[in-house]
């Protein structure tokens, strides 16, 4: 990357960091957020995030203020858009770093006349930025978190935080323990999270259920997490296989889910937000990824230590989006072995 002119942030300046897409994307932006606060401790480091994902920013000592946006309202409600613009103007920001260049949000920063608007070049709405980062994520050559850290080139040098962290409260952990107790989940336990929210190709649910049965038979305590609908789908499939499930589906908001994941030994998940949430809480994961370059673990893999990533047998998946048959080639046996090895490591620490 060629040398760039540094942004002159002074004590008391307010910096807005914008990442308004999915949960996993926001988790992978946390290293950039924390690095900026460490380098500029006397500046106000504020984050604009989606209403759904924003709770993970709560109780974070490196975030001075959270601004939340409902993306669906921004698309369809002119009054909502006008009100958000007003809030951004009131922020009196010296600069904004747009990690995810959504067109409507980027236009609001331009209309708010934030003096320094940093975003990527090469898009139509790059015209809303007056400082451009010359990189392209389409090649998927490195991790998403590293792409976010590329924006540090515009700021003073210093140490870099590479691992995302989410900060829980004792009362959240206490509530998570209560939900687990009500579901008759004993410690230590493993979480299976079969959903993906449409963000990635999924390992078939029937294989998650078979994995549940194999782990339970081996004496491992297991619980299913996810939405209420996912829980109902799991129940129907489990009944056909004669497996009785323990579930907390539909019972957790984002902070409670985070607390549950933090208490577990291992989380098994597709490439989705809760996988990254688990790694941000120092819980080991087994991540199930498709053989598609755009969804590669090189770009979207877990950032924890000793996590295990499993891919299909195919070198490059050519299946249509959300119709991936390759994921079925990930065997229950291979995932079982990965989970039990991590589970055993955790118990012998």
Walk me through the topology.
Blueprint: E1 14-19, H1 23-27, H2 30-39, E2 44-50, E3 65-69, H3 71-76, H4 78-90, E4 95-98, H5 103-111, E5 116-120, E6 131-133, H6 144-149, H7 170-182, E7 189-193, H8 205-217, E8 221-224, H9 228-240, H10 254-263, E9 266-270, H11 273-280, E10 284-288, H12 297-300, E11 308-310, H13 332-347
Parallel strand pairs: 1-2, 1-4, 2-3, 4-5, 5-6, 7-8, 7-9, 9-10, 10-11
Helix pairs in contact: 7-10, 8-9, 8-13
Residue fraction in strands: 5-15%
Secondary-structure element string: EHHEEHHEHEEHHEHEHHEHEHEH
- For the residues shown, what is the average pLDDT? 94
Decide which structural class fits the backbone.
alpha/beta
In one word, what is the shape? globular
**For the largest beta sheet, what order do the strands appear in spatially?**
3-2-1-4-5-6
Q: How would you name the oligomeric state of the polypeptide chains in this document? A: single chain
Radius of gyration based on Cα positions = 21 Å
CATH class of the largest domain: Alpha Beta
Enter the CATH topology name of the largest domain: Rossmann fold
Reported for the largest beta sheet, the result is: 6 strands, parallel
Any idea what the CATH superfamily of the largest domain is called?
Glycogen Phosphorylase B
Number of strands: 11
Name given to the CATH architecture of the largest domain: 3-Layer(aba) Sandwich
Low-confidence stretches: none
Helical run tally: 13
The overall number of domains is: 2
């Amino acid at each position: 990357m060629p040398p760039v002119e540094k942004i002159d942030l002074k004590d008391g300046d307010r910096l807005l960091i914008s990442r308004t897409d999915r949960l996993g994307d926001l988790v992978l932006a946390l290293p950039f957020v924390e690095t900026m606060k460490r380098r500029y401790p006397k500046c106000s480091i504020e984050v604009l995030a989606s209403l759904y994902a924003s709770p993970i920013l709560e109780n974070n000592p490196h975030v001075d203020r959270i601004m939340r946006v409902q993306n669906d309202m921004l698309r369809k409600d002119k009054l909502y858009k006008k009100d958000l613009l007003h809030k951004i103007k009131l922020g009196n920001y010296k600069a904004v770093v747009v990690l995810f260049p959504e067109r409507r949000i980027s236009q609001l920063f331009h209309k708010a006349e934030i003096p320094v608007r940093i975003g990527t070049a090469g898009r139509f709405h790059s015209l809303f930025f007056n400082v451009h980062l010359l990189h392209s994520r389409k090649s998927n050559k490195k991790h998403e978190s590293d792409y976010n850290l590329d924006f540090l080139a515009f700021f003073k040098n210093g140490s870099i935080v590479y691992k995302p962290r989410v900060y829980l409260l004792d009362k959240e952990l206490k509530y998570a323990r209560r939900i687990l107790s009500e579901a008759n989940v004993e410690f230590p336990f493993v979480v299976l999270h079969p959903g993906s929210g449409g963000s990635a190709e999924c390992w078939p649910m029937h294989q998650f259920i078979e994995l549940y049965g194999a782990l339970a038979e081996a004496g491992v305590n297991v619980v299913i997490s996810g939405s209420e609908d996912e829980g109902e789908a799991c129940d129907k499939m489990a009944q056909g296989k004669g497996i009785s499930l323990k579930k907390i589906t539909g019972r957790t908001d984002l902070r409670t889910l985070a607390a549950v994941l933090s208490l577990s030994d291992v989380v098994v998940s597709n490439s989705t937000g809760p996988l990254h949430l688990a790694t941000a809480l120092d819980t080991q994961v087994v991540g199930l990824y498709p053989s598609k370059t755009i969804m590669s673990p090189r770009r979207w893999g877990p950032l924890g230590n000793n996590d295990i990533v499993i891919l299909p047998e195919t070198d490059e998946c050519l299946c249509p989006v959300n119709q991936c048959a390759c994921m079925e080639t990930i065997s229950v046996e291979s995932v079982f072995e990965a989970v039990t090895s991590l589970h055993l490591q955790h118990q012998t620490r």
